[in-house]
Specification:
The chain has about 120 residues and is mostly helical. Helix content is about 85%, strand content about 0%. The longest helix has 28 residues.
Length: about 120
């Protein structure tokens, strides 16, 4: 909408960042669920790794300036994608899906950041 109008709405930009933060929190929840299901993964590293995306998303939303929010959430999405692609307990189809969906979310937020 903003791209077609040639106008950046700060409210829509922040809404996009908030949606990205929601996705990032959800990704941490997936990792938590896998770790709880497989008792061999119930380690501090896996538990911290599953909570970190939500904390990054939350900190991003606390940023006082929308471009900082977008940048923080984008970094979280990219970092979580990297972490998930290396995670051996996810099936190949899920990793492929994660790449496509994370890149879509990342590029969507990047577009809003450029228009801001």
């Amino acid at each position: 909408i903003m791209m077609m109008a040639g106008y950046c709405s700060p409210t829509l930009a922040y809404s996009q960042a908030a949606y990205g933060a929601t996705i990032l929190s959800f990704l941490g929840g997936i990792r938590w669920g896998v770790a709880v299901k497989e008792t061999s993964l119930l380690t501090w590293n896996h538990m911290i790794g599953s909570v970190t995306p939500s904390l990054v998303a939350w900190l991003g939303l606390l940023m006082p300036y929308t471009p900082l929010t977008l940048t923080t959430v984008m970094g979280g999405v990219a970092g979580q994608l990297y972490y998930d692609v290396l995670f051996e307990h996810y099936p190949a189809w899920f990793k492929g899906l994660r790449v496509v969906l994370s890149m879509t979310a990342f590029l969507s937020m990047w577009t809003v950041l450029v228009l801001y």
